[in-house]
# Entry
Amino acid sequence: MNRMYKQIADILFGLLIMIVLSAVFSNSRELGNGIVSGKYFWFYASMTLLSVVAIPAAIIKRKERLTFKLPDSLILLFCASAVLITLNHTGRLTNKCLLLIFVTMFYFYLRIFLWGKSKLICGLCSLAFVITGLAESIWGLMQLYGFTLSIHPLFKITGSFFNPGPYSGWLAMVFPMALGYVVLNFFNRKGREVSQSLFERISKMGVKILGILTVLCTLLVLPAAMSRASWLAALGGSVFIVVMYGLQNRMVVGYIKKYRRRLVLLSVVAVVLFAVTLTGLFLLKKDSASGRAFTWKIAFQTVKENPLSVGLGNFGGSYGDAQAAYFASGAGSEREEYVAGGVEYAFNEYLQICIETGIAPFLVFLAFVICVLVIGVRNKNYLPAGSLVSLLIFASMSYPFNVLPFVIAFVFLSALCMAGEGAKERKDEVAKVRMYPRFAVWAFLIIAPVMVFLLGMYKIHPLHDAYKQWNRTRILYGMNAYWDAAEEYAKQYPHLQDEIQFLFEYAQSLSKSEQYEKSNEVLRRAMQIRCDPMLYNIMGKNCQALKQYALAEQSFRKASNLVPNRLYPHYLLAKLYHEMGLKDKAEAETNIVMTKPPKVESRAVKEMREELGELRTKN
# Structure
């Protein structure tokens, strides 16, 4: 009877983990920026449910113990340091800090309930993860062939994400685990034993079919998404899976020992082909690849200038300052000026984590990742380890940790890699293994729901209301009712200071309603979290309206240095100099607008040139 209750607890907890993973599909039309914010509030709600159910589930499984592992202390240290550093920079609990706290709690829930490597709960979790990949790939195929619309109007394939980048990364992350289902069936002879029960055979066949379907659907849709980072990530995770399972097979090991020279030759050929593939991928989108390389160059410079961190969420502002200073110094080449942009992410999560949290916490994070992978390999948890390898490769070329479902998946895969240490420990060795005191586990299970309740009451609930009100206020903004919109935005501002689109709309509403000083206050906050020349353009126009010409010139110049291939800041400078009566400077800026080839030809460029041409004629 007790065993049945434990199985029920495992199934219940497994279902709750499925609910948490389902955040990837969440999208809310009643919230501002609902594609992103909907996923956040789904996660917070599912964590609340998880916290409530965890206590009775733990009572049922009360005889089990949890071993203390180095990654547990590392993730606590990283979370605490990142939150404290950000509080020091901002003086408040930002939304990113809130998310980090919840994600850390989710990690320890997983550690507690996955410790004994229950095949039932681990199997349910892995299946749920692969099913999300199958659902996303089918969703993408339907978008590709016109059966359903993409979420983003500029892209044909997005799945449940806002653009093809994270969508492709999710498929690439799930792909190795799905491939592992097929590879495991191929290498593992035990899977073909006649002595297995009918239920076990049907289960194995179902898992194999699920793996094959997911692999095939992913291979159909992933190339169409045109994400080179996801292709390399899927390849890296798949190679890891095949190699790990291959080394467990006696026939494969025997073949390696027998034909070592052939394998060396094949390895050399594989390395050459990989190098050729990388070259081809670079040339496929040369400007995009050059732009990311330049972003990494400036990001390294930002690390040097801010070794002690800038705070979670403040990457954009510090990066923008470094990029503007680089071009202002005259060090930038024509090629770099062409590929530079107002980037929102570093396109390398390790660099961004280092910038936002500092070098020391970044090293703690790196140690956590290495320890988890080592434990995963030692415990032979190759499926989650392969998907984690894929995610880590993707993180080196994209921004998955800035997208909530990937953060959830990172914690989920890390906990799955560490599952099973309890099953390996013999009774006579238990005393030698450092264990969590039982009261510490229960203290967490009791304190965590209290924290969830308090944060929900005083932080998450007001935040949810602010997102709902923002969505309604955008109607006023779209109708150009700027005075009314600004009044409503002011009520939401305390809760949405980390939402760049909200800040932009609020600042624009204040500027359009001639509240220039207030607009500049909001813009200064936006400049801390985003590298966007338009923020400086708006501030410059506000200062110009206030007759603060020196500040206006400074803002327009900062915008032109931030992204040198944009003509709009030079156009604004030309008009400013005309107003100030500085004809020589106005002529110099007009010549830039008239002669410099734009990165993208548009109607706006033509109109700017026509207007400046008329001003030149009049003067």
